[in-house]
Amino acid sequence: MNYTLHQLHIFLKISELKSITKTSEALHLTQPAVSIQLRNFQDQFPIPLTEVVGRQLYITDFGMEIALAAEKILNEVHAINYKTMAYEGQLSGRLKISIVSTGKYVMPYFLSDFMKLHEGVELIMDVTNKTRVVESIEMNEVDFALVSVLPKKLKIDKVELMENKLFFVASNAIEIKKDVSKKDLFEKFPLIYREQGSATRNSMETFISKNKFSVRKKMELTSNEAVKQAVLSGLGFSIMPLIGIRNELKNKDLQIVPIKGLPINTVWNLIWLKSKKLSPVALAYLDFLNLEKERIIKQKFAWGNDF
């Protein structure tokens, strides 16, 4: 057998995404290039690694075994590279972070300078919903997670990063009468929700329940960006994190509707398991945050004080 690390990397990604198209996009390769590498890799095994049923690509049981072996091999290669860098005096290793979808407006700013300081550090950041984020911490799949609502069942440590404000927002193309009641806004107009498991969804439902509103019509969308686009188009209103609508407010595409009891104020927290033995990279990142987070907040997020 004469397979390459490049082929192992491509096949591992194919096994994760179950798609040539998605793999080519994830690895920034052309679809023909991915297909050729898969074929060349397959030619070295007498048993099929994949099969196509209908138009869907599936990984065979044997293929999954090979994918697990490929992951182990690639992890060992990474370890060799990290050890080499360590001997050269560089901080090296992987930093794995899972964040809720709205956190993509926050976390990169707290990572950028750290990554520039330590070129030997490889960042893996998964953007998903709250349920999956908490699961990744519980299963010890990541070093840290970014959440705005702390999980109650896990023993965790945390660093508070910054405030998270949620406002009631509408398209600026919609004229809202000054005498309209809060009850009418929630009960007569369509409301746009995030999916179940979202912290924003939970905050919105808690506010509605606390005020004993009866929602007449609602829509459910699976990302903050989808909700924002729906609100912009005039499909309905929503309660959204301020952090994700800065440009739309600046361009006067969205408006914040003043409502008593809003904004909802929570805090972005970087969390990790108390029992986790943090790697040198993770410990270095915590040191960086403790030293630099106030500067980052002042430089990148001071605009939020205007709302």
Structural description of this entry:
This protein is an alpha/beta fold and 307 residues long. It is built from eleven helices and eleven strands. It folds into three domains: 81 residues, Arc Repressor Mutant, subunit A (Orthogonal Bundle); 112 residues, Periplasmic binding protein-like II (D-Maltodextrin-Binding Protein, domain 2, 3-Layer(aba) Sandwich), CATH 3.40.190.10; 101 residues, D-Maltodextrin-Binding Protein, domain 2 (3-Layer(aba) Sandwich). Strands 3, 4, 5, 6, 9, 10 and 11 form a seven-stranded mixed β-sheet that branches. It has a two-stranded antiparallel ribbon with strand order 1-2. The protein has a two-stranded parallel ribbon with strand order 7-8. β7, α8 and β8 form a beta-alpha-beta unit. α1 packs across α3, α1 packs across α4 and α2 crosses α3.
Describe the SSE topology:
Layout: H1 5-17, H2 20-27, H3 31-42, E1 50-53, E2 56-59, H4 61-87, E3 93-100, H5 107-117, E4 121-128, H6 130-138, E5 144-147, E6 156-171, H7 182-188, E7 191-194, H8 199-210, E8 218-221, H9 224-233, E9 238-241, H10 246-250, E10 254-256, E11 264-273, H11 280-300
Parallel strand pairs: 3-4, 3-5, 7-8
Antiparallel strand pairs: 1-2, 5-11, 6-9, 6-10, 6-11
